């Protein structure tokens, strides 16, 4: 369950990011502390330089001389020793804060990606059907990587700028209260400009993230459909469409770049005013004897150290806004509410008998356009039933409802007299083996794809499942046998081979309920006959629902249901349905080419 579900959506992305990072509170404080201490030591060299100037100019009357060290060489030796300590500690804390911030960035991006993907897996199927895979990949990859980059670099820079302003400002007021205001004068204008730029940049970078999502979506779609692109010779057309998306992303970035690039030059001119004021006014104070030469050196160096790092605010602000736009997209994904919630009743696979009942079930993908209408169905445990009907009659939708990939609008579906909404979702789906018409194989070996979902299966069990599915023979003929890589989505295999591996995968799962959704649609007649023989074995002692266009694959079912427009219009055995001379008999005649003897 996502860690972000308790977080309110009206919070600023940075607030939500900090709340998300509560797990790493100690690591954050360690990183913050090291960044601050590093900056303190980084600001020490100008003070040491001022002390050195004071020693050279005033010698025994220098600040160190007044402490009892009269020899100039010894005074410089002390400063040299202090310099070694300061530089050494600065380097040590820089190493420490860089390591801490980078570890923090890696930990947060790792867990955030897992939380986002985990939440994504819990969302209903409709969420994915309404969105492009490329957009989701952009969030899980690009946006989270953008956030990681900010934690790597930006967070430390913001802290060090803040530390510089506080430390240097304090030193100015201690050393020379009369001129301190000159150095501090540009800071309110710089901060005001930073906040203004941030507000103006936010919508621009939100648009950038949106455009890069669309670009990734186009790339993902085209790479998935490369075979179709080649077969229709639309390479030039797709390149032009990609050019359009890439151009939109480029233009969006150019708008943000044109605006963000103006920040540093403008801030530089404001800084120049403060630096020049200290240079002139402080110099005259030295001439008039009101300010020591060493203190003047310190002020000049510290002014540069105070104001010049503020020019980096432009880059830091740019990085910050990009990361906040990305954070917002990730958080919106995590805020997406779950519409399908798991039940609480445990139903281990070994206890499932397989009795399925549907009572007055109604369902629509879109309100006002029902797909399933008042459907009632009773499937006794261990029975084999067939479901047929024209395209769009609701056959495959029925499968999705049984698996709770969608939630029904009205009615009830029960398994072994328990409402499936009350059953633990994992137990419900473990008890059902699905062989879909649209077979999906993962990029991996044939062996891994058969064992998918049952990783503890032995090699012998995998081979046995493949034999039952009539897949063993062709797998053995592959270049590396069961260790052959089948390619993304199984593209190295034929449709029939992919389907037989999918059947073997369902067999190895050994579920009490087996659903075959057009499981033989992509095989030849010979393979279909072989699979039919296999199904005789694997459907024994288990509830089987076979959805088919090829009526020959379901003719021996205990009962066959004919669906039209989301309703059961005919039901009975193969023989009885032929006797009725209804829809089923007409379909049989079309497929066989002759009128059956029945």
From TrEMBL:
One of its GO terms (molecular function) is ATP binding. The keyword Transmembrane applies. Keywords: ATP-binding, Membrane, Nucleotide-binding, Transmembrane, Transmembrane helix, Transport. It is a multi-pass membrane protein. One of its GO terms (cellular component) is plasma membrane. Pfam families: ABC_membrane, ABC_tran. Residues 356-590 form the ABC transporter domain. InterPro entries: AAA+_ATPase, ABC1_TM_dom, ABC1_TM_sf, ABC_transporter-like_ATP-bd, ABC_transporter-like_CS, P-loop_NTPase, Type_1_exporter. It is found in: Cell membrane. SMART domains: AAA (SM00382). Residues 29-322 form the ABC transmembrane type-1 domain. Its main location: membrane. The keyword ATP-binding applies. The chain crosses the membrane at residues 72-93, 158-175, 181-201, 256-281. This is ABC transporter, transmembrane region:ABC transporter. It comes from Crocosphaera watsonii WH 8501.
């Amino acid at each position: 369950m996502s860690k972000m579900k308790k977080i309110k959506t009206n919070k600023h992305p940075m607030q939500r990011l900090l709340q998300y990072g509560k797990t790493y509170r100690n690591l954050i404080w360690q990183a913050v502390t090291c960044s601050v201490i590093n900056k303190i030591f980084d600001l020490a060299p100008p003070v040491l330089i001022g002390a050195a100037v004071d020693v050279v100019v005033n010698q025994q009357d220098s600040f160190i001389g007044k402490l009892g060290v009269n020899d100039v060489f010894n005074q410089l030796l002390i400063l040299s020793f202090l310099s070694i300590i300061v530089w050494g500690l600065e380097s040590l804390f820089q190493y420490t804060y860089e390591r801490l911030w980078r570890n923090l960035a890696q930990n947060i991006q790792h867990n955030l990606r897992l939380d986002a993907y985990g939440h994504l897996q819990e969302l209903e199927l409709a969420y994915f059907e309404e969105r492009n895979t490329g957009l989701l990949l952009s969030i899980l990859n690009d946006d989270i990587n953008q956030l990681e980059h900010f934690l790597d670099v930006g967070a430390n820079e913001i802290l060090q700028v803040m530390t510089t302003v506080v430390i240097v400002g304090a030193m100015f007021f201690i050393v020379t209260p009369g001129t301190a205001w000159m150095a501090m004068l540009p800071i309110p204008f710089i901060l005001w400009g930073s906040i203004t730029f941030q507000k103006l940049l936010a919508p621009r970078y939100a648009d950038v993230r949106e455009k890069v999502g669309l670009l990734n979506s186009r790339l993902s779609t085209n790479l998935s459909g490369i075979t179709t692109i080649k077969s229709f010779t639309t390479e030039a057309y797709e390149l032009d469409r990609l050019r359009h998306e890439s151009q939109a992303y480029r233009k969006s970035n150019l708008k943000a770049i044109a605006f963000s690039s103006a920040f540093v030059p403008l801030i530089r001119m404001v800084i120049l005013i403060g630096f020049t004021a200290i240079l002139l006014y402080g110099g005259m104070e030295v001439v008039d004897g009101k300010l020591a030469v060493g203190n003047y050196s310190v002020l000049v160096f510290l002014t540069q150290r105070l104001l010049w790092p503020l020019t980096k605010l432009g880059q830091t602000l740019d990085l910050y806004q990009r990361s906040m736009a990305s954070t917002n997209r990730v958080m919106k994904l995590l805020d997406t509410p779950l519409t399908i919630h798991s039940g609480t009743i445990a139903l281990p696979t070994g206890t499932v008998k397989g009795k399925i009942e549907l009572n007055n079930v109604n369902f629509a993908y879109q309100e006002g356009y029902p797909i399933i209408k008042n459907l009632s169905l009773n499937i006794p445990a261990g029975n084999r039933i067939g479901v047929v009907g024209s395209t769009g009659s609701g056959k495959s939708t029925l499968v999705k409802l049984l698996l709770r990939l969608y939630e029904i609008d009205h009615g009830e579906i029960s398994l072994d007299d328990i409402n499936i909404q009350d059953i633990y979702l994992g137990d419900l789906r473990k008890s059902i083996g699905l062989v879909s018409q649209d077979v999906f194989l993962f990029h991996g070996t044939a062996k891994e794809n058969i064992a998918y979902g049952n990783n503890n299966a032995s090699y012998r069990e995998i081979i046995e499942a493949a034999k039952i599915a009539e897949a063993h023979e062709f797998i053995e003929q592959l270049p590396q046998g069961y260790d052959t890589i089948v390619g993304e989505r199984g593209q190295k295999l034929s449709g029939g081979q992919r389907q037989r591996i999918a059947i073997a995968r369902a067999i190895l799962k050994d579920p009490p309920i087996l659903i075959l959704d057009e499981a033989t649609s992509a095989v030849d007649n010979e393979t279909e006959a072989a699979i039919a023989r296999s199904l005789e074995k694997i459907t024994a002692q288990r509830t089987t629902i076979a959805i088919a266009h090829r009526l020959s694959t379901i003719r021996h079912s205990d009962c066959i249901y004919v669906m039209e427009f989301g309703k059961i219009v005919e039901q009975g055995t193969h023989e009885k349905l032929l006797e009725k001379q209804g829809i089923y008999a007409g379909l049989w005649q079309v497929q066989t080419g002759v009128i059956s003897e029945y």
